[in-house]
């Protein structure tokens, strides 16, 4: 039982007052009389109903106490807690990130969350159901659905997306969809009360934080490189538990185990594993084998990158760019366009011109310079990107720039709406496009220019058949050749997952972390799906409820709104009985 207005329990003071009145009522003294002849009628009546006479005084007391007690209970608004869902309609916000795959009670957190959602849906009483998936981009999977069976089907079909959840955006979306009497249920593993209170300040919210702080070992980083004629690697493993843990670290490649080492890691510490020499392969898998509750962060993919690929300056290119690459230690080789050996499968191309048609099928940085140029009058802005890390653009001057080339490029530097630096993929190879001539800018005089060339050199040094690293389920348009318009996606077990037509649709990465292959005709392109760094730790918080009193009291009072009336009516009956008992006793 619950009470809408428990403040009225303070009226119990009146019960105490009544009891005190009985303690201090008038006391009678015994008197001896010579005859009771004049009391004969009274004695006859007393003998006719002796039980009532004996009980009159005590009965008055209990009737008064019961009447006051019932009136007090009626004012407090008692309600019986029922097995029902609070709210005129229900909004579910479900976290589908990688951390929800952690083990919990002989299953995983995500399965436990789905089961709780199904239990709530099963006892709905005509409320509408809305389901929001709190992924990287929150999605509305179901909007105000009154069909309970349909809602249960959607909940059952939910799957993990393995990306990092944008819980703040999902809560804002839920707030915009909620009505005055809506109840919001959030299913995650570590939603903080402060976040829920900030995003949903006046909403009824139940946060179901599922999970426990279990043992977890995480492969924080793993990489390989080719230097001094040999392939070496390094891995970092973190023990996120409170006890010493043992694990086996292995490196796999082309279905072979290339390296294995047992490690013992102290609680809360990291272990660095140096790998001296490996067989030269395009792709490596680092795996830790251990009994922890979270396996999604036990694997990483590394791509072999040559330590110092050569830079081929193709045709007439800016001397500033050539000297810039030489400044960072790269070997620059001058090559004529017509004399280029197409069988040369390694290196980075440095070129300048107004078309990509004669660009070799290698990673390239291309300075786009055309006859038609646009004057730049707006401020230069940049996006956060690896290529522009530590590059200062505030004092950079660019007088004019070429119109951008056609293609699906990612713009990382622009003046107003005019792209200045773009990156993407051309014929399956990474490409950086600079849409202005260095002679129209003072950029070569800034220290940020060689830094940009170094970042570009590192980015372009990746394996030529490697499509890149992707977030789980990430979609991106690829600028590909005609020979790569249709691809089949395979996992490491050579299972065909799905096919894509890149001429009509964007490239879509699988959701589960790991290494994959994109097969186009007879050519194989490698790519990897990596966890977001924020998903390499599993934490869990306490469940809680916000703004519960108003909505729960509202629903309870609507279900039990006549209870106070019956309590008051019974109290009135007791008052009437007490009055009749008093009247008869006074009359006698």
Overall SS class:
alpha/beta
- Strand content of the residues, in percent? 25-35%
Strand order of the largest sheet: 19-18-20-21-27-26-25-23
Secondary structure tally, helices: 11
State the total count of DSSP E strands.
Answer: 35
* Average pLDDT level: 83
Query: How far from one another are the termini?
Result: 44 Å
Shape: elongated
The main sheet comes to: 8 strands, mixed
* Low-pLDDT sequence parts: none
Give the C-alpha Rg. 39 Å
Helix content: 25-40%
Give a structural overview:
Helices cover 25% and strands 32% of the residues. It has 588 residues and is α/β, with parallel strands linked by helices. Helix 1 (12-23) runs antiparallel to helix 3, helix 4 (109-122) runs antiparallel to helix 5 and helix 8 crosses helix 9 (448-460). The protein is elongated and about 150 Å long. The mean pLDDT is 83. This is BatA and WFA domain-containing protein. Residues 89-263 form the VWFA domain.
């Amino acid at each position: 039982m619950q009470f809408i207005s428990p403040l009225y329990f303070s009226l119990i003071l009146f019960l105490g007052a009544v009891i005190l009145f009985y303690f201090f009522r008038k006391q009678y003294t015994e008197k001896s009389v010579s005859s009771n002849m004049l009391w004969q009628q009274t004695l006859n009546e007393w003998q006719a109903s002796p039980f009532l006479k004996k009980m009159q005084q005590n009965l008055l007391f209990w009737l008064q106490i019961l009447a006051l007690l019932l009136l007090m209970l009626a004012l407090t608004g008692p309600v019986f807690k029922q097995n029902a869902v609070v709210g005129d309609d229900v909004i579910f916000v479900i976290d589908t990130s990688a951390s929800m795959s952690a083990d919990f009670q002989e299953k995983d957190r995500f399965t436990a969350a789905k089961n709780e959602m199904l239990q709530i849906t099963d006892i709905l009483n005509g409320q509408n159901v809305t389901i929001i998936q709190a992924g990287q981009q929150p999605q509305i999977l179901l909007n105000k659905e009154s069909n309970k069976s349909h809602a249960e089907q959607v909940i059952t079909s939910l799957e993990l997306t393995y990306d990092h959840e944008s819980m703040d955006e999902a809560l804002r979306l839920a707030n915009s969809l909620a009505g005055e009497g809506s109840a919001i249920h959030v299913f995650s593993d570590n939603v903080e009360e402060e976040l829920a209170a900030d995003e949903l300040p006046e909403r009824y919210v139940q946060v179901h934080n599922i999970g426990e702080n279990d043992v977890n070992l995480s492969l924080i980083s793993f990489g390989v490189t080719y230097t001094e004629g040999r392939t070496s690697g390094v891995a970092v493993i973190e023990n996120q538990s409170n006890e010493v843990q043992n694990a086996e670290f292995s490196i796999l490649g082309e279905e072979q185990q290339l390296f294995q080492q047992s490690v013992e890691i102290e609680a809360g510490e990291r272990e660095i594993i140096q790998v001296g020499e490996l067989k030269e392969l395009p792709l490596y898998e680092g795996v830790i084998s251990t009994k922890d509750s979270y396996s999604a962060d036990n694997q990483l993919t590394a791509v072999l990158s040559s330590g110092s690929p050569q830079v081929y300056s193709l045709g007439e290119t800016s001397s500033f760019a050539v000297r810039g690459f030489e400044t960072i230690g790269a070997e620059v080789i001058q090559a004529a366009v017509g004399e280029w050996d197409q069988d040369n499968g390694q290196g980075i191309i440095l070129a300048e011109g107004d078309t990509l048609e004669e660009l070799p099928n290698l990673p390239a940085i291309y300075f786009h310079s055309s006859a038609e140029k646009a004057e730049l009058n707006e401020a230069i802005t940049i996006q956060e990107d690896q290529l522009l890390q530590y590059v200062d653009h505030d004092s950079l001057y660019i007088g004019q720039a070429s119109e951008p080339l056609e293609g699906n490029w990612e713009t990382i530097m622009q003046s107003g709406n005019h792209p200045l630096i773009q990156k993407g993929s051309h014929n399956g190879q990474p490409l950086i496009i600079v849409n202005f001539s260095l002679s129209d800018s003072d950029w070569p005089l800034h220290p940020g220019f060689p830094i940009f060339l170094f970042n570009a050199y590192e980015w372009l040094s990746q394996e030529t058949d490697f499509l890149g690293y992707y977030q789980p389920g990430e979609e991106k348009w690829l600028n590909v050749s005609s020979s790569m318009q249709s691809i089949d996606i395979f996992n490491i077990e050579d299972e065909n997952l799905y096919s894509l037509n890149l001429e009509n649709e964007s490239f879509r990465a699988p959701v589960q972390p790991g290494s994959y292959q994109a097969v186009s005709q007879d050519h194989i392109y490698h790519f990897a799906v990596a966890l977001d760094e924020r998903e390499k730790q599993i934490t869990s918080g306490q469940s809680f409820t916000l703004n519960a009193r108003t909505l729960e009291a509202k629903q309870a009072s609507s279900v039990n709104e006549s209870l106070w009336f019956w309590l008051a009516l019974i109290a009135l009956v007791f008052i009437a009985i007490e009055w009749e008992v008093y009247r008869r006793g006074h009359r006698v």
